[in-house]
Design goal:
Number of domains: 1
Distance between the termini: 17 Å
Radius of gyration: 17 Å
Strand content: 5-15%
CATH topology: Alpha-Beta Plaits
Oligomer: single chain
Number of helices: 8
Shape: globular
Largest sheet: 4 strands, antiparallel
Length: 221
């Protein structure tokens, strides 16, 4: 069955996107916390120079991310500082050609390389072969500020929705705790807390409106 075009959005700079990936045949994406830590480590390695990350949640067979791709200028500056021998064909194409036509291609490649990198390590550990993730991965643009707030709450509440935990506050493998912590993070913590009006309001809104946002028509599993 064809995937609706709205779930295969073209990445563009400085627009928020909901990115979500799912395993093939409902396989487990993680068997232990080391897997989950590796998944986030691989995400940061491949994506942090190219996108800003605002939220995430890891579930048994799927994961959600709320991201905003970086500006063309910042990406080019980063690539120009990299070892030329480590640049991919897509990197070179982005630097040397019309960035408007290659922007999506570059961001899509970084996500695909992230998924492949994790799958290779996970398959070795599990003594299995083949693809781990459904292709293509899905991504949807965020329409407005209300959608952005609802989506953040939906992502953090997803473990409750799937009955993994009763209180999202205690779920270790989402960005909820990291956003409230003072520990170093790759997340855009200050920006997130500011749009919620501070930590106290962030906590209050999450708890008061979680069930409502489960049914938001723009929220995706």
């Amino acid at each position: 069955m064809p995937i609706p075009k709205i779930l295969l959005a073209q990445f563009c700079e400085n627009n928020f996107f909901h990115v979500f990936c799912k395993s093939i045949d409902e396989r487990k994406l993680f068997t232990n916390n080391d897997n989950r830590a590796l998944f986030l480590q691989r995400f940061n390695y491949f994506l942090t120079p190219f996108v800003n990350t605002y939220g995430y949640s890891l579930l048994p067979n799927h994961a959600h991310f709320l991201i905003k791709p970086n500006s063309t200028k910042s990406i080019i500056n980063f690539l120009n500082e990299c070892d030329p021998d480590l640049l991919t064909h897509t990197h070179r194409k982005f630097i040397e050609s019309d960035q408007i036509t290659t922007y999506h291609e570059l961001i899509e490649q970084k996500f695909n390389r992230f998924f492949i990198s994790y799958a290779l390590k996970y398959n070795i550990q599990q003594k299995q072969k083949g693809h781990l993730f459904l292709r293509p991965f899905k991504r949807k643009p965020v329409n407005d500020d209300l959608h952005l707030t609802q989506l953040m709450i939906y992502i953090h509440a997803n473990p409750v929705k799937h009955k993994i935990i009763k209180d999202l506050t205690y779920y270790k493998w989402s960005s909820y705790q990291a956003l409230l912590s003072d520990s170093p993070t790759h997340l855009c913590r200050e920006e997130v807390l500011n749009w919620f009006g501070g930590k106290e309001n962030f906590i209050r809104v999450h708890h008061e409106q979680t069930l409502h946002y489960y049914n938001h028509p723009d929220a995706m599993e």
